[in-house]
Task: inverse folding
């Protein structure tokens, strides 16, 4: 057992060293740091047990004891003092000591027993803490896997639900089409096709074909949306660009899209030149999808809505972009789920993938963060915190995990 004696009182420590001469299987530290050098000395020596030799522990001694206990949680510490003061032993134990012992009449055998007991107890505590950390790590891993499987299950269920409707309609229309074709074939074989019957047949065929075509296109759009859930870097170009002029170009594009609906987008920023080394096309897609979401959910028909994009440089490494609308706002119950796949307040009008795709584009493509604050009739504000330089692409990591 390697023992380090920390001196606050030279007389007490020298007496302890004499006691250790009668003990076997103990090695004293080559150094005996004073209180000021205690923590550095422990790091250098890496002892099995520490003894603080003192005449009477003062406030400085208690502070060092607390620091040692904090830095070296499972290292046994004994206080051996020349004097006894009522309540001081308990205060030393609260500060981190295993025992408070009096130098006299402390024998070598009693000292050895106390050290062995303290070391055994600390080793048990360290082992128990290791087991608890291992159990916690396993529980966390299990929770992460369970959350992944739950998210995957929700995604698969959502895909099945969304795809099932147009495919089902298409199958029904094709079955109807087949039956009408068979009926017309029989009439043809019998030579009983009238002009009115043939005209009705053409109308039904046209309606069925249109229904099948519309639902096949709807299925294709859904599948395209599913593909966008996973962000792929290989199709994007990373380059350096000035953010403000680029956002102005995006706003010009958005206003051309918003013209027919009588809405408009404006820039509100007094930021200086902000240069980004990122994926500008991903940023354009994010703002375009947020704009489409505002048109779909925030603005009432016939009423002009305003979208405001606010940009602010936070430091040399990041910026904040806020996308705000003055529309209907979002009810509080929807906020926690707004980025979930297939979550929508207009079931049937859209798939509920838009904001989930936005979330993935921001977090995986731009390596940023996005959140939203809103209240009914007070509009919505989507806040993006983006790094000015994207070092690595998280999309592939997210897919692999």
Result:
């Amino acid at each position: 057992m390697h023992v380090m004696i920390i001196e606050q009182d030279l007389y007490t420590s020298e007496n302890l060293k004499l006691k250790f001469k009668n003990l076997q299987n103990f090695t004293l530290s080559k150094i005996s740091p004073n209180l000021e050098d205690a923590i550095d000395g422990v790091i250098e020596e890496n002892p099995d047990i520490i003894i603080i030799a003192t005449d009477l522990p003062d406030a400085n001694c208690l502070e060092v004891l607390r620091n040692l206990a904090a830095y070296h949680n499972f290292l046994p510490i004994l206080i051996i003092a020349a004097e006894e003061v009522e309540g001081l032993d308990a205060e030393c134990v609260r500060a981190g000591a295993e025992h408070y012992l009096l130098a006299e009449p402390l024998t070598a055998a009693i000292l050895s027993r106390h050290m062995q007991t303290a070391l055994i107890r600390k080793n048990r505590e360290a082992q128990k803490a290791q087991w608890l950390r291992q159990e916690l790590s396993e529980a966390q891993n299990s929770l992460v896997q369970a959350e992944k499987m739950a998210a995957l299950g929700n995604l698969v269920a959502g895909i099945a639900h969304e795809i099932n409707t147009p495919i089902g309609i298409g199958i029904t229309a094709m079955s109807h089409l087949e039956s009408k074709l068979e009926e017309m074939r029989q009439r043809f074989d019998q030579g009983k096709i009238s002009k009115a019957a043939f005209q009705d047949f053409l109308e039904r065929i046209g309606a069925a074909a249109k229904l099948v075509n519309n639902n096949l296109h709807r299925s294709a759009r859904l599948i395209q949306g599913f593909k966008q859930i996973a962000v792929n870097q290989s199709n994007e170009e990373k380059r350096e660009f000035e953010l403000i002029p680029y956002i102005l170009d995006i706003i010009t594009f958005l206003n051309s899209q918003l013209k027919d609906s009588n809405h408009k987008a404006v820039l509100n920023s007094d930021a200086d030149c902000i240069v980004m080394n990122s994926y500008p096309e991903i940023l354009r897609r994010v703002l375009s999808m947020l704009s489409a979401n505002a048109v779909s959910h925030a603005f009432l028909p016939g009423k002009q809505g305003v979208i405001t994009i606010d940009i602010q440089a936070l430091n040399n490494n990041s910026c904040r972009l806020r996308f705000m609308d003055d529309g209907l706002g979002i009810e509080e119950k929807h906020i926690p789920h707004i980025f979930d796949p297939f979550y929508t307040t207009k079931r049937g009008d859209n798939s509920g993938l838009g904001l989930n795709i936005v979330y993935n584009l921001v977090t995986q493509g731009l390596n940023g963060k996005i959140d939203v604050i809103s209240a009914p009739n007070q509009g919505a504000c989507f806040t993006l915190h983006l790094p000015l330089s994207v070092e690595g692409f998280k999309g592939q990591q997210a897919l692999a995990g």
In short: The first strand starts at residue 2 and ends at 7. The two ends are 46 Å apart (CA to CA).
